[in-house]
């Protein structure tokens, strides 16, 4: 029941350096003790997989796009005719990346975890000046997983009002409650981490939803839109 699949496009070498200094070592949370390079080596989607993934998405009839992390990734995704781009939360201050994605004139989704109001405004301005006409801002708490008490979902209508754009939620909580609540607050898009089975041990598996949960969340979101008298 999902509308689209989003992957990420980077390599460890395009996103960080292989260094074990304190600024490059994760100190807490799920990935404590790992260096950034080690984490990204485990987590990245190999570029040689991308074409097969895009072909499979076309075969089964679902959109697929990605979060690029540098201009080379944008160029690579353009060669695959990616239909949209997402700027990850930590890249919201990378105006060069935002401009590269916006210059494609394709829909642009920007996550806001850790960003200040001014940083969000600057990112939107760069995107518009660079050619983006369809922009969605995702409220996001950069916690993995995010406790429900830290979701701050009332930021969603504030984003819509403050930036005059559509907004959604990048949801790192476990379960579906935050996503459904976000819909009632005006969210037009929900992003959830997804796994075939939490027991498979992926780097984000502990806060990812499985196929049964995805079906429930998609059905419930559509029913919520219907109850609100809105068209999905």
Architecture overview:
The protein is an alpha/beta fold and 232 residues long. It contains nine helices and seven strands, in the order βαααβαβαβαβαβαβα. It has helices at residues 12-15, 36-43, 47-60, 71-79, 95-102, 117-129, 155-163, 177-184, 211-228; strands at residues 4-9, 63-68, 85-87, 108-111, 135-140, 166-171, 190-192. The strands form two sheets. It has a five-stranded parallel sheet with strand order 3-4-5-6-7, covered by helices on one side. A two-stranded parallel ribbon has the order 1-2. The longest helix is centred in the last third of the chain and has 18 residues, at 211-228. The radius of gyration is 17 Å and the shape is globular. The two termini are 12 Å apart.
Which key features would you list for this structure?
9 helices; two-stranded parallel sheet; alpha/beta
Q: What's the structural blueprint in terms of helices and strands?
A:
Blueprint: E1 4-9, H1 12-15, H2 36-43, H3 47-60, E2 63-68, H4 71-79, E3 85-87, H5 95-102, E4 108-111, H6 117-129, E5 135-140, H7 155-163, E6 166-171, H8 177-184, E7 190-192, H9 211-228
Parallel strand pairs: 1-2, 3-4, 4-5, 5-6, 6-7
Helix pairs in contact: 5-6, 8-9
